[in-house]
Amino acid sequence: MTKEEFQKLTQNVVLLDGATGSNLMAAGMPRGICTEAWIMDHKEILQDLQKAYVEAGSQIVYAPTFGGNRYSLGLHGLQDKLAEMNHALVNISREAVGHQVYVAGDITTTGKMMEPAGDLTYEMAYEAYCEQIQVLEDAGVDLIAAETMINIEETLAALDAAASVSSLPVMCTMTVEADGSIFSGGNAVEAAIALEGAGAAAVGINCSVGPDQLVSVVRNIKENVSIPVIAKPNAGMPVIDDQGNAVYNMNAQNFAEHMKVLIENGASVIGGCCGTTPDFIREISKILRR
What we know:
By secondary structure, this protein is an alpha/beta fold. Helices cover 45% and strands 15% of the residues. The strands form 2 sheets. An 8-stranded parallel β-sheet has the order 1-10-7-6-5-4-3-2. Helix 3 crosses helix 4. The two termini are 29 Å apart.
């Protein structure tokens, strides 16, 4: 996908997919393991989920390459298999959905704190993102999605890396509190302005809280950027049950009604994060067809 093609696609509301991780855990994935390795051993579970998202109306699905950078894979001693794993994970998604929808190469934070709070330098982050994004483009993704980002500088490193090794459009979403503040400092509007300036094709928020708490955040982003605004929130706020599982407080219909409000306030690239399922995407799709 070229940046021009992405621009044309986003002239109308674009429907992303919903959660991956929370659905895999519901399907039996244990905690604390390498998600990417588990998916490679249980690819049918991921493929059934992505097929269900497409059937529900998703126009873009995220390849399960979320933790496929050298630092995250290194926690499991798998950093030397980075290229092999990212290729395989993209192929799993492409096999599931073909070319009827777009497949985004999913990247996220390295999990290391940026200087001065930690020892991750801009150069280290840049090199790690160059490495993964190059592999993702070689594997045939249509665009890049940098999601669940918690540091503006690290996200800028990812964008700079993408610009140096790829011509694909990049969507960027930060994780924020209900007031728009970012975990490591700054806020969603500052991030959006900086990321648009650095070449992002679309900017916004994902994960964090439910759509009911993000109306002013989305509106403020929309008022300050000229590119599409992304909203991919959780299914409300989770409560931890007796087994240690997160139980989210919104059902699919309730979630979709709140997403309609976010669309009215400027979001035009929309989907769901933790706690959402294909049913949530289906309900949003119904609203879009009204």
